[in-house]
Amino acid sequence: MKQVSILGATGSIGQNTIDLIRRAPGQFNVVALTGGRNIAQLAADAMALGAKVAVTAHDALLPELRAALAGSTVEVAAGSAALIEAASRPADWVMSAIVGAAGLPPGLAALGQGATLALANKESLVTAGPLLMQTARANEARILPVDSEHSAIFQAMVGEDADAVSRVIITASGGAFRDWPLADLARATVAEASSHPNWAMGQRITIDSASMFNKALEMIEAREFFGFDPEQIEVLVHPESVVHALVGFVDGGLMAHVGPPDMRHAIGYALHWPQRQALPVAALDLAAIGTLNFRAPDPARYPALRLARDVMEMRGLSGAVFNAAKERALDRFIAGHIGFWEMNEVVEEVLTRLTGDPAEMNAALTLDCVSRMDHLARQSVDQVVSERNS
Ligand code: NAD
Ligand code: MG
Q1: 18 with 42: CB under 8 angstroms?
Q2: The domain spanning residue 141 has which CATH number?
Q3: Shared domain check, 256 and 236
Q4: Three-state SS for 119?
Q5: Candidates 119, 151, 194, 205: which one to mutate for ligand 1, based on the most atoms within 8 Å of Cβ?
Q6: How far apart are CA 76 and CA 57, in angstroms?
Q7: CB contact at 8 A, 244 and 151
Q8: 128: closest CA among 311, 350, 381?
Q9: Would you say 275 and 209 are in contact if contact means Cβ atoms under 8 Å apart?
Q10: Within a domain: residue 249?
Q11: Which residue, judged by its Cα, is nearest atom 2 of ligand 1?
């Protein structure tokens, strides 16, 4: 039996992972489940799956978790140190599905104990790609991509020589506002930005899809995970969301990965890898879809893609700045302090302010210096927002 843990078990990716584990009885033993505020879900899943330990990220919610699991054999714990401890418990496979840079320390801990890390948490690669990849190498641990585009690239490259790859194309649905007049984006609301045309996901990544910050993170993720050069990474808007990525080879051929927009495909591929197993994913009816559309993203509509190119060139700590500034700008948008379009301007301003010193940007990546830069970038967002609002 494979020993598995799920970090961020109560979220969209976490729940889809649990769904697949339930459908494969006798194949998996659950070690740790972690969550945030949804204690009822965390406790119910921990009991149903027979987890050894359940952890909430919030210290204050420990009594509630303890009460919910009273009389069961599930251990309980809370807080960021407990998350790391849970991720460090021996397991063969750990799903990294916490949202945001908070996923980095537990992800590193899982790699540190040699587990295969199924990586949905793209923010950890954007924030500290070289550190994550180096930790995997040092512990002979493997990272398997779960982001649908990166799973698609990974699958299209099976059996291929990496040197024969000339380009990769990541597709983007275009998000909630792809057909809105550009001038209307400034007054787009949180509710409008939180509905995705094709995918059902957590709120934060859904808004990031509307702004294309999600695709910006994914370009950096592709660079850090596969080692592609920035100019090899292209983005196409593909409203049908059935071609997840294409890999181009030196002979001009393109291998596309095609499937319905259902994250259980990418999660299931990582869960059962290197085998393939039947998954509860609908068969794609291409005749019913009829036409597949592709178009180049409009740079005026999606400034985040240009910022991603800058970060891919700078590397070092610029990824930590970019990701944290994006996360904090998103917090401020959700709280109603800045408009949708302003997120672009605020993140760009913070990148300009904090990435000017090449020596500092290229300091060796340690968790401490990454955390410090993450903190500075969030502070800088608050500074920029207060300057704009004063
Ligand atoms: P979500 O918001 O639905 O769930 C996030 C999970 O993380 C929850 O369990 C929550 O309790 C936990 N969490 C939140 N903040 C935390 C913190 N500070 N410390 C510890 N735990 C915390 O998010 P999601 O949509 O499932 O996305 C999870 C990750 O997967 C993100 O990195 C996202 O970019 C990535 N991803 C998601 C999808 C998708 O379809 N949802 C697709 C590709 C990649
Ligand atoms: Mg994706």
Answers
A1: no
A2: 3.40.50.720
A3: yes
A4: strand
A5: 205
A6: 11
A7: yes
A8: 311
A9: no
A10: yes
A11: 202
55 within a domain of the structure (yes/no): yes
Is the pTM of the predicted complex or chain greater than 0.90?
A: yes
| Average pLDDT estimate for 154-163 | 97
- Confidence category of residue 172, pLDDT binned at 50, 70, 90: very high
Q: What is the mean pLDDT of residues 72-101?
A: 98
Contact 381, 350 (CB under 8 A): yes
Burial class of residue 10 (count of CB atoms within 10 Å of its CB; 0-12, 13-18, 19+): buried
Question: Which residue's alpha carbon is nearest to atom 40 within ligand 1?
Answer: 201
pLDDT given for residue 197 in this prediction: 83
Q: What is the extent of the structural domain holding 247?
A: 150-260
CA of 241 to the centre of ligand 1 (A): 21
Burial state string for 199-218 with b = 16 or more CB within 10 A and e = fewer than 16: bebbbbbbbbbbbbbbbbbb
Mean pLDDT taken over the chain: 97
Token pair for 64: 């509630």
What is the widest separation between alpha-carbon atoms in the chain?
Answer: 62
Q: How many residues does the chain have?
A: 390
Boundary (domain end) residue, out of 245, 260, 275? 260
Lining ligand 1 with CB less than 6 A are 8-14, 35-36, 57, 83, 97-100, 102, 120-123, 147, 199, 201-202, 204-205, 263
Q: Long-range contact list for 250-254, CB < 8 A, 24+ apart? A: 250/164, 250/165, 250/166, 251/164, 254/169
Residue keyed to tokens 């996901």: 201
Report which protein residue has its CA nearest ligand 1's atom 23: 202
Q: Are residues 112 and 60 in the same domain?
A: yes
What is the number of structural domains in the chain? 3
CA dihedral 33, 266, 318, 227 (to 10 degrees): 130
pLDDT higher than 80, residue 96: yes
Q: Is residue 86, in this structure, part of any structural domain at all?
A: yes
Q: Is residue 254 located within the same domain as residue 354?
A: no
Residues 42 and 141 in one domain: yes
> What ligand 1 atom has the least distance to the C-alpha of 205?
34
User: Which domain CATH number covers 342?
Assistant: 1.10.1740.10
Which ligand minimizes its atom distance to the CA of 33?
1
